[in-house]
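Q: Structure tokens for this one, please.
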Amino acid sequence: MKSARRWLRQVGALMVKEWGQLVRDRALFGYIIFIFTLDILIAAGAPALDLHNTPLGVVDRDHSAASRELIYRLRPPYYAVHAVSGSELQLQRRLDRGELRAVLTILHGLKRALMTGTASDLQLVLDASDANLSYLLASYTTRILAPLAAEYVERRRAASGQHTAIPQVRLQARVRFNPALRETWFATLSELITMVTVAAILLPAAALVREKERGTIEQLLVSPLTPLQIVLAKILAMTTVILLGTAVAVGGIMHAGLGVPFRGSVPLFFAMVALYAMSASGLGVLAATFARNSGQIGLIVLLLVMPIIMLSGTWNLVESMPQWLQAAINLSPMRHFVDVVYGIVLKGTDVASVAAPAMKMALLGAAFCAAGVLRFRRQFR
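A: Here is the predicted structure, written as tokens:
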């Protein structure tokens, strides 16, 4: 029992040393403050993933009441409509310069086609250099203009005395968890998950490499400390820093400042953040065993973090990826942490709902930490 208490006291002393070194490292300490404060605010103010005042050029060759009604429907906040004329070459140049994102051409005979019930084509030329924006433009424009033809059919029937209803299929959507579809909620949570991931991998790795650079790692190893104590102290110290940063980001900025709700259990949320931070720290410890200086660890962490963030489900749909890539990304703790964060914060899920992803994070973290400690021990035998 006494040996266990002494073992824990030694780990605690090392944790205090790590906190002191982090505070004295102004660049790294400033970076930690930035990612949990200003970076979250920047993510909240970033452009939303929908149309907002998108410049749309309209060429009206029909000059009828029907064409004017059609143009009126393409109004803010989705579009900034510009009446354009000129040759196709001039329109192409405006698309090339980015002055317009799309050009809608209304051909002659639109009103006549609507009144007689015949087909009438509209031409929409899209700037698809931004594939997501062009998809949204085509989708929004189709949904806004499609009802126009049905309304003219109804008018013709009413004018002729025919009141037979046209069969319709109506979709009644019920939006849960984010009824107003506020992009800020999603963007800030995604950015928080990303920054927690970066900090959890970078901080322990940087702490270990710093010991190598300063030559103090040998002093630690000849002291009555085991490699496990050295690694565990760095992981626990940096996990504490991440928990404090997360508390500031979630409570002070996202919830109080930006109005992001918090529907789940606060203790459960921070327990999951701590578990994830320790799991991802295992990757940082493992990465540190392959680096000799801060420059190398920065490149290795970048190599690890970029695919993890891009493929783990914050900004992409995992189910749309190839099967082999889905299987590979399941080895990332972040893949399971994404579901946990959105579930607790926005859905209010309980312990039973997060038990499975939490177990996967714990197993992956244990494996990474074990591999890192083994490599660390072999390097300094």
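A few notes: DSSP finds 15 helices and four strands in the chain. The CA atoms of residues 207 and 218 lie 14 Å apart.
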